[in-house]
Design brief:
There is one protein chain. The mean pLDDT is 82. By secondary structure, the protein is mostly helical. It contains 8 helices and no strands.
C-alpha cells in the first residue's frame, strides 16, 4: 500500500506539471541536459537533507541553519560578482523585497522549519509531504501570473493528496 501511495503521488506530480501548461510543447522544449541537472539537484538535496539531520542532531538546528545559510551565501558570491559585472540592472524596492524574502524566509526560516520537522517526525513522513511542493508552486504561479491550470492539474492534485495520505497512513502504521 505504501508503494501505491508513493506511485500515486509521483504520478500526480507529473500530471500537475503537465496539467498547467502545454504539456507536450513544454516537454519538447526540455533538453536531456536540463533533465539531468534537475535530477542531479534532487539527488544533491536529498543527500543534504540526510546529512543535515545528523548535523542538527549533533550541533543543533539553529547552528546548522546558520552555517548552511552562510556557506550558501559565500558560495554564491563569485556568481553574484560575475552577474553584476555582466548584466545591467536597477535596484528597486521589489528586488530588495524579493532578495529578503528568498534569503531570509525561504532559505533561513524554511531550512530551520524543515530541519525542525525532520527532527520531530520520521524523515519518510516529511519526505512524503514534499510531493505537495509542486502543487503549491504551480497554484501560486496561476494566482500571481495567470498561468492556466487544466483538468490534468486537478486530477494530479487529487492523486498527490491521495498518495501522500496513503504514504503517511501506511508508514505511521508500520
Amino acid at each position: 500500500m505504501q508503494q501505491f501511495g508513493l506511485a500515486a503521488a509521483f504520478a500526480g506530480v507529473a500530471m500537475v506539471a503537465f496539467g498547467q501548461g502545454n504539456g507536450a510543447d513544454d516537454l519538447a522544449q526540455t533538453t536531456l541536459t536540463g533533465a539531468a541537472l534537475v535530477l542531479l539537484s534532487a539527488v544533491m538535496i536529498a543527500f543534504y537533507y540526510v546529512w543535515s539531520v545528523e548535523l542538527a542532531d549533533r550541533y543543533g538546528t539553529v547552528t546548522v541553519v546558520i552555517w548552511s545559510t552562510l556557506a550558501g551565501f559565500l558560495a554564491l558570491l563569485p556568481f553574484t560578482a560575475w552577474e553584476i559585472a555582466t548584466t545591467s540592472f536597477h535596484v528597486e524596492p521589489a528586488a530588495i523585497a524579493s532578495a529578503v524574502y528568498l534569503g531570509l524566509l525561504v532559505s533561513a526560516v524554511g531550512l530551520f522549519l524543515w530541519l525542525w520537522l525532520l527532527r520531530t517526525v520520521p524523515a519518510r513522513i516529511a519526505a512524503s509531504v514534499q510531493f505537495l511542493q509542486p502543487v503549491f508552486g504551480i497554484a501560486a504561479s496561476a494566482v500571481m501570473f495567470g498561468d492556466r491550470m487544466g483538468p490534468l492539474f486537478i486530477v494530479g492534485v487529487l492523486l498527490v493528496l491521495i498518495g501522500v495520505g496513503l504514504s503517511i497512513i501506511t508508514r505511521r502504521g508500520g
